[in-house]
Design a protein that fits this description.
Blueprint (H helix, E strand, L loop, with lengths): L15 E4 L3 E4 L7 E3 L3 E10 L7 E7 L4 E5 L4 E4 L4 H11 E8 L5 E10 L2 E8 L3 H15 L3 E5 L8
Length: 162
């Protein structure tokens, strides 16, 4: 894995995503609402700037049901090239390695990274602080279930310069 590779768990056009619990009446306050059933996959088909001058992309997902919705980075459970969540979980079970969790000086979640050996490739997996809810609700229970060893790295408190 090279440092410049985008993790498969980061949203990008063409990547697969999954909704575990589904979406109920998803959409803007004054706009059309969409409901997507639980356990549905989709593909990111577009990424646009949510606000001019802001570095906050809004991703358009075309769900396997044919419906379209828009989401911010932290709302998407990305499964990379895997067709289903079950395929992604199986790849984690079969080829997960080098798992590291970075914690802040007070013990708060900062980042999680690991690799999935899939065929002859090493796929990067990474969750950052903005994805903490996805990491805690989805990945952490799975790591505990499969017994994958996770190395914790605790950051030192920075001293203030006078």
């Amino acid at each position: 894995m090279t440092p410049t590779e985008t993790p498969i768990t980061f949203p990008d056009v063409g990547r697969r995503v999954w909704t575990v619990h589904g979406l109920q009446d998803h959409g803007p306050i004054d706009g059309p609402k969409t409901s997507v059933p639980a356990n549905t996959g989709g593909v990111i088909v577009d990424a646009t700037s949510a606000d001019p001058g802001m570095d906050n992309l809004l991703y358009t997902v075309k769900w396997d049901t044919g419906q379209y919705t828009k989401h911010y980075f932290r709302e998407l459970l990305c499964i990379g090239e895997f067709q289903t969540l079950a395929d992604f979980k199986q790849a984690l079970r079969d080829g997960g390695e080098s798992a590291k969790r970075t914690l802040g000086p007070q013990g708060g979640f900062r980042e999680f990274s690991m690799s999935i050996r899939h065929g002859n490739r090493l796929l990067p997996v990474r969750y950052i602080s903005g994805q903490k809810a996805i990491y805690e609700a989805f990945l952490l229970p799975l790591l505990n279930e499969i017994g994958l060893k996770v190395d914790d790295i605790k950051l030192e408190k920075r001293s203030r310069a006078n």
